[in-house]
Design goal:
Blueprint: E1 3-7, E2 11-12, E3 18-25, E4 34-39, E5 45-51, E6 58-60, E7 68-73, E8 78-83, E9 92-99, E10 115-118, E11 122-126
Parallel strand pairs: 2-11
Antiparallel strand pairs: 1-3, 3-8, 4-5, 4-9, 5-6, 7-8, 9-10, 9-11
Length: 128
């Protein structure tokens, strides 16, 4: 059974950094493109990063480009999200997810509804 488990969320000051992890089981990172989306209180989902299953190419939405870095360790079946220069607007629950057919990781974003499976999420709070 496919599972994704996010971890690494925390309370951090503006300008700080966090590294989120997404451990997957029941499949490998060669099987699915993996995306990250977030949801802030009272707001809709925001898809903002993904990594291609075929060659590991990363893609970012403008809201995080230059601050966030997605990577993967295929041996550990884990995807990472390094978040730097965090801002209060980054406060949200962060989820990693597999893409649902016919969507793929291409740098085009579909409002956060292009996913099939996701984990329980991890809370990131950016506040002084």
């Amino acid at each position: 059974q496919a599972q994704l488990v996010e971890s690494g969320g925390d309370l951090v000051q503006p300008g700080g950094s966090l590294r989120l992890s997404c451990a997957v089981s029941g499949f490998t990172l060669d099987d699915y493109d993996i995306g990250w989306f977030r949801q802030a209180p009272g707001k809709g989902r925001e898809a903002f990063s993904c990594i291609s299953k075929s060659d590991g190419s990363p893609y970012y939405a403008d809201s995080v480009k230059g601050r966030f870095t997605i990577s993967r360790d295929k041996a550990k079946n884990t995807v990472f999200l390094q978040m730097n220069s965090l801002k209060p607007v980054d406060t949200a629950v962060y989820y990693c997810a597999t893409y649902d057919f016919p969507y793929h990781c291409t740098g085009v974003w579909y409002g956060g509804y292009e996913y099939d499976k996701w984990g329980q999420g991890t809370q990131v709070t950016v506040s002084s």
